[in-house]
Amino acid sequence: MKSPDLPIRSLEARYYTDPQIFEAEKSGTLASTWQFAGHASQLENPGDYFTFEIAGEHLFCIRTRDDEIKGFYNVCQHRAHQLVQGQGNCRLLVCPYHAWTYELNGRLRGGPNIQVVDGFNKSEICLSSVRIENFCGFLFANLDSDAEPMDDWFPGARDELQAFVPDIDSLKPIEWVEIPERCNWKVSIENYSECYHCQLNHPTFSQGVVKPDTYDIQPQGHCLRHTTECQNLDAMTYPIDLSANEHAGEYSSWFLWPMFSFQVYPGNVLNTYHWRAIDHEHVVVWRGWYSVDNSDRETVLALARQDRETTVAEDIQLVESVQRGLKSRGYVPGPLVLDPSCGVKSEHSIRALQQWMREGVTNQVKSHKSSRQ
Ligand code: FES
Ligand SMILES: [Fe+2]
């Protein structure tokens, strides 16, 4: 007998169009997952800092005198003025409102006239910290103080990345390009996470280096791992030394739920996707490109340009059309195409994603509490 639950259907449209769902995600998914903050190379010296935002919270990362990278909420513990803006370097953190001063490790050092206050215990006052992990030079923050470490969320990903990009820890960003998309962040993430649309929409994908029949995307914890065999490597626009290491001729990608992806092109060339949800119908995608010493700068920038003119441009059209469609009264969520043998023409990766998307809304109360402890 046919199960009433089959076929499995795509997520209801309101998940992508309802501002209340986005609000729920701010205290659910976005407040309880690892989100990209910035790159360790932005914090080379003690006192270097940069600000960022997650789920509406203003935060900053700073390198301490003990050479540790710490994350804090960007708020003074006196009467709530913000402490720092943008990025820069400081000897101490001095609040611009009444000049309370904090050490780089967040401890209160002093403030004008505080010695007159009975019972004022300086050592009890410290900036509120936020968890930071350094993942191959990429800094991620999690508002949930009870969150599992990234290696538990994304098993194997760190070791695999180090094998695919042997110099990953010494890379520095050479370009971060901002690409605004008029769609819900989940539309963009889903589009990145299936290749059922690739043959029709990405001619460079189908006729290029990737062998489409071997393409697959499989969950690895909360990582969606893209794997494929390659072909036509001699047609690449840059030279590849296949003898350099065991993965020199390979393409792979590690999508880290919910909003970051490492992508490696043949020749061990790393690039990243970093999504930032603006509201329920706007997302910005940052495409990042890297180099160790800038010797390959022109090659990498040419690759970045080619990528923007092809895959990125093609995908913008798709995701913005989907967002318009999701607002249509005429849309009923259709069945996902789940091929038992998976592969390039299957949407099994979307099923996994949509499960996490549902949980990220229903688990909001629990996550909210734990992030406030
Ligand atoms: S609010 Fe920061 S010193 Fe008063
Ligand atoms: Fe695409």
Task: Describe the protein.
- α5 crosses α8.
- 25% of the residues lie in helices and 26% in strands.
- The C terminus is likely disordered.
- The chain is globular, with a radius of gyration of 23 Å.
- The strands form 3 sheets. Strands 1-10-9-4-3-2-5 form a 7-stranded antiparallel sheet, with no helix packed on it. The protein has a 7-stranded antiparallel sheet with strand order 11-17-16-15-14-13-12, with helices on both faces.
- It folds into 2 domains: 109 residues, Rieske Iron-sulfur Protein (3-layer Sandwich); 210 residues, Naphthalene 1,2-dioxygenase Alpha Subunit, Chain A, domain 1 (Alpha-Beta Complex).
- β3 and β4 form a beta hairpin.
- With 373 residues, the protein is α+β, with helices and mostly antiparallel strands.
- The structure holds FE2/S2 (inorganic) cluster (FES) and fe (ii) ion.
- Fe (ii) ion binds next to α6.
How many angstroms separate the termini? 49 Å
Rg over CA atoms: 23 Å
Tell me the helix content. Answer: 25-40%
Strand % is: 25-35%
Number of domains: 2
Outline, from the CA principal axes?
globular
The top level CATH class name of the largest domain: Alpha Beta
Class per helix and strand makeup = alpha+beta
Distinct bound molecules: FE2/S2 (inorganic) cluster, fe (ii) ion
Put simply, the count of helices is 10
CATH topology name of the largest domain: Naphthalene 1,2-dioxygenase Alpha Subunit, Chain A, domain 1
Strand order of the largest sheet: 1-10-9-4-3-2-5
- Uncertain ranges: 365-373
Secondary-structure arrangement, i.e. CATH architecture of the largest domain: Alpha-Beta Complex
The CATH superfamily title of the largest domain: Naphthalene 1,2-dioxygenase Alpha Subunit, Chain A, domain 1
Count the E strands.
17
pLDDT averaged over residues:
94
Give the ordered list of helices and strands. Answer: HHEEEEEEEEEEHHEHHHEEEEEEHHH
Largest sheet: 7 strands, antiparallel
